[in-house]
């Protein structure tokens, strides 16, 4: 929570087969702060019967780039999983993100002038140069207060 900015931000997360960690994160942020996280999802999900109303209630949708920028300019948080459903099953050590002509979430963050402070603070706090994510995680759990 201490790394979330008070204003708008694009929260980038990994989309696994079922991103339950992201859903729980969204619920926890709302419960503790009252902030809503607008989640961007693939338009294909809306073709499943009964999902449209449910997803709109939970501020989840497939907005245009302009609508994403407006949501951020209103001060909200936005969650995005680059690659999303299309790339959820390709994760291994050799996988390269399939960008194609996509640059949407990065361009949205630039156009809306949202902060990158939260991600940078997290990186600086938990990763020493030259850096090892495994070392950072081990160190974090060893120094964590019980």
From TrEMBL:
Keywords: Membrane, Transmembrane, Transmembrane helix. InterPro entries: Plipid/glycerol_acylTrfase. The keyword Transmembrane applies. One of its GO terms (cellular component) is membrane. It comes from the Eukaryota. Residues 2-115 form the Phospholipid/glycerol acyltransferase domain. The keyword Coiled coil does not apply. GO terms for molecular function: acyltransferase activity. The chain crosses the membrane at residues 12-30. This is Phospholipid/glycerol acyltransferase domain-containing protein.
């Amino acid at each position: 929570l201490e790394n979330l900015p008070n204003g708008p931000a694009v929260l980038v997360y990994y989309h696994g087969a079922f991103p339950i960690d992201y859903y729980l994160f969204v619920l926890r942020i709302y419960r503790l702060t009252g902030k809503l996280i607008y989640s961007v999802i693939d338009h294909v999900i809306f073709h499943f019967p009964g999902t449209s109303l449910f997803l709109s209630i939970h501020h989840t949708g497939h907005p245009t780039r302009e609508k994403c920028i407006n949501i951020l300019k209103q001060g909200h948080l936005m969650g995005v999983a680059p690659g999303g459903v299309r790339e959820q099953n390709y994760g291994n050590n050799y996988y390269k993100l399939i960008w194609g002509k996509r640059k949407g979430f990065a361009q949205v963050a630039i156009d809306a002038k949202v902060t990158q402070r939260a991600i940078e603070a997290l990186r600086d706090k938990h990763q020493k140069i030259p850096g090892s994510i495994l070392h950072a995680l081990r160190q974090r759990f060893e120094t964590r207060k019980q």
